[in-house]
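User: what does the whole thing look like in 3D?
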Amino acid sequence: MSSFDAATLPLLAEALAHLDVGFAALPPFEPTSAPPSAGDEARLREALLALAERLRDNFPYAHPLYAGQMLKPPHPVARLAYALAMFVNPNNHALDGGRATSRLEREVVGELAAMVGFEPHLGHLTSGGTMANLEALWIAGRLAPGRAIVASRQAHYTHARISSVLGLPFDAVDADARGRLDLGALSARLSRGDVGCVVATLGTTGFGAIDRLPEILALARQHGARVHVDAAYGGYFKLIDELSADARAAFARVGEADSLVIDPHKHGLQPYGCGCVLFRDPSVGRFYQHDSPYTYFTSDELHLGEISLECSRPGAAAAALWATHRLLPPVRGGEFAARLSASRAAALALVTHLRASPDWLVPLAPELDIVVWAPLPAGPARASEISALSRRVFDEAARRQLHLALITLPTAMLVAADAAPALEADAPTTICLRSCLMKPEHAEWLERITSSLDESLAAARA
Ligand SMILES: Cc1ncc(COP(=O)(O)O)c(C=O)c1O
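Assistant: Here's the predicted 3D structure for the full assembly of 462 residues, as structure tokens:
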């Protein structure tokens, strides 16, 4: 059985022939590279097979036994649509370079905006979450020059870096015991009167924690600060109900933020190169205005380069997302949402398994589909021993083809956990295990995952 889905490839040839009809009026032309001569074809084949060989050097990201970092395989429709659009290779900077895909981009961005409740909106796709967050913080800086950006210590590390690139002061405030931005710390920081924008993360990278958006909105408004929601990973979970009351309350209010980032290349089934930034007030588009004497000629309609910091951007990314939305609309109750529910169910089932055993410690209940847990030594537990054991379990699991991730937590979080054993905090931080159960297949593979985990712990303790 193949690890990769090749069965859909004939559809690409069919769709390509269909696309070709649209250009049938052109005089015949032979591209220099196709069809290749016999010698060319052999060289092409050699290059591709050599690449396939090199690509074997990867973890099996698409397989359910890959349960480590935040990686999710694109849906076949996204792969095919991206490949199809690449034959045109449109550039969504301007309608001149990507007319059809610019329109597709505006449609999909509108659908994402409707999903989060940004109506009206201004937004576009980006190369990923970092670029999307950069644009949101850049606008925050343009509206409140010199004022600080504030985020929790659990926010993505790029917020500090982006602020430094933008020349804006940045402050990290503490997180609470559930890994959420601490409201007391935020209130104290806001009362200094120099904060321009608070970043609320809905789905932190480490644990999937959900910052308390309703309270953050109230505090930020009280102090005249903007609110930017980083939902790069967690945003799509707005579509499902199987979340804690706090998480649901946060997602219910995202439409009130000033800007929001969501990454279709995380939970949106897209290949890398697809983030999205949204603004609730379309008039921020004025900050993007530029004059270039050589770009926009074919239409007075909006060119996406007029509302994006990047110039060239792949129209193929918009095409892939558009085809995915057509097949699996990002709406409540649909098939796309059911896939998220399966990931969430897998995370909860893993936690149930771990909590049923004295061998593991789960310091905090997962809010989405990321689970963090610690293996416990057979005898009394010391933080440094847990760290060493986590590394051994990680290696033993990899030997059994189960691929996990690691995370460094403040030891205090383990000590404070419900049902924590007496634990000697001989180090300020402790290495734990982490799994992003982002594939719906994880739910079906859970028994295999948990039995491999238990075996890995037994081997690591031996
Ligand atoms: C919450 C959050 N924000 C931002 C990013 C950065 O996104 P990207 O890696 O697409 O640049 C990530 C990446 O994991 C993330 O989890």
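In plain terms: The chain has two domains: 86-327, 335-461. The CA atoms of residues 91 and 266 lie 22 Å apart.
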